[in-house]
Every structure is written in C-alpha cells, then in structure tokens.
Design goal:
By secondary structure, this protein is an alpha+beta fold. The chain contains four helices and four strands; from the N terminus they run βααββααβ.
Amino acid sequence: MAEPNRPPWRVAPDIGARPACQLIERGVSVMLDCESCLHVAIWTPADIGRRFGRHADKSFNWLGPRLRCSHCRSEWVRISQASPAPNANGGRR
C-alpha cells in the first residue's frame, strides 16, 4: 500500500486541472476509490457543489490532498470521473 515515492491521493489527469465549478456545470460525477479499504463513493454534481461550494473555483488537484475515505479515513484515495450510468435500453447516456 504505502508507496513512498508518490502522494497517497491520485487525481485522474482528465479532471485534475478543471475547477470543481466546471465539473458541476458539465454534469460530471466524480468517483472516489479508497486503496485501503476498497470503499467506492460517487459524488454527483450536486454533491460536489454542496461539499465544495465555497471552493468551487479550485481544481481537484488542489482538493485531492484534502480528501479522505469516508469509511476508514485513509488518504490513499483515487479520484476520477465516474462512468455514466447505462440508460434503460442498456446503452450509454
């Protein structure tokens, strides 16, 4: 688990530099995946806005070091864009 040559949190490059407000505007959900306990959380745009409203101008590269797993409080968290949910026909939205 502990890899001394990297920070414990990892942010996917496709969302790392984008401000949270841009992700909210575009309707992007974010997945947080704990490397310690394997807990996975999906934050919808509404969740992101509620959690980071006053920091909505900050990127996930800035927010990442401040995040912890809600289950075990580990800082070994991967942050990435959540895959869109399949629609009723089995296709993608």
